[in-house]
Write a sequence for this structure.
């Protein structure tokens, strides 16, 4: 196996900052969040599962799509895309898996989402395997693993004295060029997938349960907040709105922004004229689960869930996706 | 103690169904993860799902808003029983004063409270601060006044923030709001936040647009706190549900203290409107 020490790793990461924006897990007031850092000294190397996914860095919560200026009948528009390269270091495999799930809609379907593609192309994913599964995790039940390299460009595993390192893609090999690697005997240890197996029912199993009591039972206590969708690495709904950012010297400055949206939110399905086709909490919660395990796999291929467990641990009223999955799988 | 309260809640729920006094009982059921979670019971056969334990942290009064409308056209709205702790019971008073619920359609099952704990076993901060162990409004009262330690100085943590010079205080809050993801959990869980269209979520972006950026978060949190002045019942659910652990209660408690000092009003102790809300009269009322 290829091996590097922590000091070498830090030196390499620092050297990357000349060319790349460096995004890594950080301790932010007790929360572990992916954040852009100026130096490798700010990186948290010992962490469990970051409290939010990394999707903000290729599918930003708020993204300016274009800027426009209007003066009288004259309108000029300017497209806005960041041009710096970006490396996400310490990404957990489930978060990369989530990116792959989003790719199925934004990249693998026509039309391709140009903004999303731009971010994905400028970003290199350097993962750090989870040594174990954490509270609420069930990645192994939905096609992932705590040390799954599949959707990463580089995978690191913590070993005695440093890290075992493996380039997964060409992009990964390119970025590793500046890192001092040693050859060490033996294989990198595999993580222990030690979580209980959660049954994943096929879409055909879900369809007849649309009117089942399950949705009322779990949906009624739902708060209609957006926690589960915003912490999810695979949720990808958005809204596009225009906003006036200022009027200066007769020129109106306008931005078109894309912002995260959430199907759990009461207004999500409200149409012109005020009709809401998902007016109740159970109807909205049902949609969230059907999207992940029925509609999304049928329409785009992958599941809309990577088993990171964030929605499980962050729901204030204990709506547990694993419990729902089990109930659906075991339904008569 | 918990067993006997559980039994009394179940007996009361069964009786309410058997006498056809209510259509639904909102209470707590056992949860493997959190110890307890909200449950909606519609049938006497299901009352044994109801439990009472030290993890009944949720303020169930917020769910009464889902029961205000009739389920079918032409029918009356459902009659609901709700299990409340002392803090939750104050929200019932606020909703009554604000004419959100009709007293005869809500059956209040009040339960004495020793303070609630997180699933990990830690006492909720709000419960350490709390001196109210008995509900202020109820149709049936379950449990006896518990003997607990008197609360410490309630506003000590607030004083530390208030001691900061204004620029540093602003920096403190912007630093906190920066973590916010605008998930609206604080608003959604709040029994006092029931506007059909939140002013911070208007399509026309009159106050703030849909961006999930610091400016919008700042406006949202300060605006929400102000809208709850004299209305916040200090159940502290907003702070509990926040996935980013924003210290939201500091804002609410500051306003609670101000309103109490200025108007001698503490939300929900009685069925009384916040002095900061008023009805527009024929003459002399400001518009």
């Amino acid at each position: 196996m290829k091996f590097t020490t922590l000091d070498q790793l830090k030196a390499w990461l620092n050297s990357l900052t000349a060319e790349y924006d460096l995004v890594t897990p950080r301790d932010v007031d007790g929360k572990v969040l992916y954040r852009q850092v100026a130096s490798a000294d700010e990186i948290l190397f010992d962490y469990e599962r970051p409290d939010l996914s990394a999707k903000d860095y290729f599918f930003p919560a708020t993204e300016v799509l274009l800027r426009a200026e209007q003066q009288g009948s004259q309108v000029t528009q300017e497209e806005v895309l960041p041009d710096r390269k970006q490396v996400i270091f310490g990404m957990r495999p489930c978060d990369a898996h989530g990116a792959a799930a989003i790719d199925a809609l934004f990249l693998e379907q026509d039309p391709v989402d140009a903004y999303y593609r731009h971010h994905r192309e400028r970003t290199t994913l350097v993962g750090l395997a989870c040594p174990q599964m954490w509270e609420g995790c069930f990645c192994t039940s939905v096609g992932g693993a705590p040390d799954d390299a599949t959707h990463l460009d580089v995978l690191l595993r913590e070993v005695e004295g440093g890290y075992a390192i493996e380039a997964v893609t060409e992009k990964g090999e390119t970025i590793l060029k500046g890192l001092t690697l040693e050859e060490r005997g033996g294989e990198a240890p595999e993580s222990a997938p030690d979580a209980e197996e959660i049954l994943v029912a096929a879409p055909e199993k879900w369809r007849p349960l649309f009117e089942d009591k399950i949705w009322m039972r779990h949906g009624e206590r739902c708060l209609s907040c957006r926690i589960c969708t915003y912490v999810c690495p695979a949720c990808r709904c958005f809204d596009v709105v225009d906003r006036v950012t200022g009027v200066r010297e007769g020129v109106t400055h306008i931005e078109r922004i894309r912002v995260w949206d959430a199907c759990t939110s009461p207004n999500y399905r409200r149409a012109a004229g005020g009709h809401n086709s998902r007016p109740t909490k159970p109807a909205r919660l049902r949609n969230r689960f059907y999207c992940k395990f029925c509609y999304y796999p049928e329409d785009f291929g992958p599941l809309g869930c990577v088993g990171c467990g964030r929605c499980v641990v962050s729901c204030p009223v204990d709506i547990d996706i694993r419990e729902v999955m089990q109930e659906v799988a075991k339904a008569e | 103690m918990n067993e006997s309260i559980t039994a009394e809640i179940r007996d009361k729920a069964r009786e309410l169904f058997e006498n056809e006094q209510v259509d639904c009982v909102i209470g707590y059921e056992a949860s493997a993860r959190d110890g307890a979670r909200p449950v909606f019971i519609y049938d006497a056969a299901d009352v044994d799902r109801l439990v009472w334990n030290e993890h009944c942290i949720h303020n169930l009064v917020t769910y009464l808003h889902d029961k205000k409308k009739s389920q079918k056209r032409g029918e009356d709205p459902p009659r609901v029983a709700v299990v409340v702790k002392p803090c939750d019971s104050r929200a019932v008073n606020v909703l009554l004063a604000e004419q959100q619920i009709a007293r005869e359609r809500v059956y209040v099952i009040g339960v004495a409270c020793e303070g609630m704990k997180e699933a990990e076993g830690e006492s909720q901060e709000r419960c350490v601060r709390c001196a109210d162990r008995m509900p202020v409004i109820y149709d049936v009262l379950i449990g006896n006044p518990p003997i607990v330690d008197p609360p410490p100085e309630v506003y000590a943590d607030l004083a530390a923030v208030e001691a900061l010079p204004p620029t540093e205080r602003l920096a403190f809050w912007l630093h906190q709001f920066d973590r916010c993801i605008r998930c609206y959990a604080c608003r959604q869980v709040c029994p006092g936040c029931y506007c059909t269209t939140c002013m911070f979520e208007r399509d026309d972006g009159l106050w703030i647009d849909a961006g999930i950026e610091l400016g919008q978060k700042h406006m949202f949190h300060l605006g929400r706190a102000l809208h709850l002045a004299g209305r916040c019942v200090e159940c502290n659910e907003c702070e509990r549900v926040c996935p980013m652990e924003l210290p939201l209660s500091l804002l609410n408690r500051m306003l609670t203290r101000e309103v109490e000092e200025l108007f001698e009003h503490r939300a929900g102790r009685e069925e009384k409107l916040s002095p900061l809300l008023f009805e527009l009269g024929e003459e002399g009322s400001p518009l």
Q: What stands out?
A: The two ends of chain B are 53 Å apart (CA to CA).
